[in-house]
Write a structure and sequence with these properties.
- By secondary structure, the protein is an alpha/beta fold.
- It folds into two domains: 215 residues, Alpha-beta prism (UDP-n-acetylglucosamine1-carboxyvinyl-transferase, Chain), CATH 3.65.10; 202 residues, UDP-n-acetylglucosamine1-carboxyvinyl-transferase, Chain (Alpha-beta prism), CATH 3.65.10.10.
- The chain contains twelve helices and 23 strands.
- The longest helix is centred in the N-terminal third of the chain and has 14 residues.
Length: 434
């Protein structure tokens, strides 16, 4: 879908939404299921591009994987296997960071040769850290970025020190497969503060739930003992970073939106959106019906550190551009290496609508200015799902916003345009349902 006209409801958005499951939890669960060797099911898995790519990666390594709606079924097997040097197993990473950082350590335990590649932008994303770490742990890897080849087989494991300041996925990727290394692995981070620490906590919690022993009592150090990964089923909770997009609709229009099934406790970084929305002036309540955000009459500016929840930045920036006071978003310099350079992209797109955005070393400063939709220039999504949804949020308040590639939201939200429209359809009648 090209040049999608962002809906402009002209009334407060009120409704209830059911958000698809967490891509981050799903791809960890699917990988752990494949590494266990047994028959497992992952319920609540969103049928998105990223999750399909992870299932495809396991299938390329000889694991029986099928999807039935929001359930992924992983069959029993005798271990991962690659191909031959002349006909390697082929893994398509697309633009999925979880696939390009999580699948190589798993493939390192397989017998045979595996070739990895992905979308053009994926070839620009940082990979050298995890590939160099695999070499230190005993793997044979040809290349430092996509595309690269890996010759699998028994991997000794051991100790490795990395600089994971560009992405917490470097740590998580090594930890998820470390129990299958002969000596396990000890991973130490040395460098600037780690981004998205809650994602590493998610990895550790899920490993422990799969019977893996993980020691994390020493700062910036994780030790995984070798051993089996338990055969078990997984239930995936809603994706809270995607839920933030729908809650933002309430915040920017002075409406009221409820997300069903909000977890009572979670390791998802997206939960941080609640505190940020409150700083903007919204109110948050939680009951048996779900999590509800009610928007304020006027949005205040905010000063927030999103280092641990950088994935929220496009959503928060979109809200900040509609606030009555200036906002500063900090701790997110690492977003320059995500699906696109998100800081540059947000500055470019908001400025194109008349906004005032300044890039800093570690974030953005957004000054309040009237925004105007431009029929001659659509909002650029940069093939980045979170940039596309940011454009949709701005379009709730600014008439005439077009988004050039709303289809890229399929990366994590199946049929986002339909879900968005379903929520907004009820805005004028007192409540939509998506």
């Amino acid at each position: 879908m090209r040049n999608w006209p962002a809906p402009f409801p002209q009334v407060p958005v009120t409704g209830t939404v059911t958000v698809p499951g967490s891509k981050s939890v799903t791809n960890r669960a699917v990988l752990l299921a494949g590494l266990s060797g047994g028959a497992c099911r992952v319920d609540g898995a969103p049928p998105t591009r990223d999750t399909t790519l992870m299932s495809g990666a396991l299938a390329a390594l000889g694991v029986p994987v099928t999807a039935e709606g929001d359930t992924v079924l992983v069959g029993a097997h005798d271990g991962l296997r690659g191909g031959t040097p002349d006909a390697p197993a082929e893994i398509d990473c697309g633009l999925a960071g979880t696939v390009m950082r999580f699948a190589p350590p798993a493939a390192a335990t397989a017998e045979g040769t595996v070739r990895f590649d992905g979308d053009p932008r994926a070839r620009e994303r940082p990979m050298g850290t995890v590939l160099a770490a695999l070499r230190t742990l005993g793997a044979r890897v040809d290349g430092d970025a996509l595309p690269f080849r890996l010759d699998g087989g028994p991997i000794p494991g051991g100790e490795v020190t990395i600089d994971a300041s560009a992405s917490s996925q470097f740590v998580s990727g090594l930890l998820l497969s470390a129990a299958r290394f002969a000596r396990g692995a000890t991973v130490r981070h040395a460098g600037a503060p780690l981004p998205s620490l809650p994602h590493i906590a998610m990895t550790v919690d899920m490993l422990r739930a799969a019977g893996v022993t993980v020691h994390d009592d020493e700062p910036d150090t994780w030790r995984v003992e070798p051993g089996p990964i338990a055969v078990r089923d997984w239930a995936v909770e809603p994706d809270l970073s995607n839920a933030a997009v729908f809650l933002a609709a309430a915040a920017v229009t002075g409406g009221r939106v409820t997300v069903r099934g909000w977890p009572a406790s979670t390791t998802q970084p997206g939960v941080a959106v609640l505190g940020v929305l409150e700083e903007f002036g919204a109110t948050v309540s939680h009951d048996d019906g779900g999590l509800t955000v009610t928007g304020p009459d006027r949005l205040s500016g905010v000063d927030v550190d999103l280092h641990d929840a950088g994935e929220l930045t496009p959503t928060v920036a979109a809200i900040a551009a509609l606030a009555t006071g200036p906002s500063r978003l900090r701790g997110i310099g690492h977003l320059r290496g995500h699906e696109t350079d998100r800081l540059a992209a947000l500055a470019t797109e908001l400025t194109a609508l008349g906004g005032s955005v300044t890039e800093t070393d570690d974030g953005l400063v957004i000054e309040p200015k009237p925004l105007t939709g431009r029929p001659d220039r659509p909002w650029g999504a940069y093939a980045d799902h979170r940039m596309a949804t940011a454009g949709a949020i701005v379009g709730l308040v600014v008439p005439g916003v077009l988004v050039d590639d709303i289809g890229c939201t399929d990366k994590t939200i199946p049929d986002f345009p339909g879900r968005w429209a379903a929520l907004l359809e009820g805005a004028s009648t007192g409540g939509g349902t998506a």
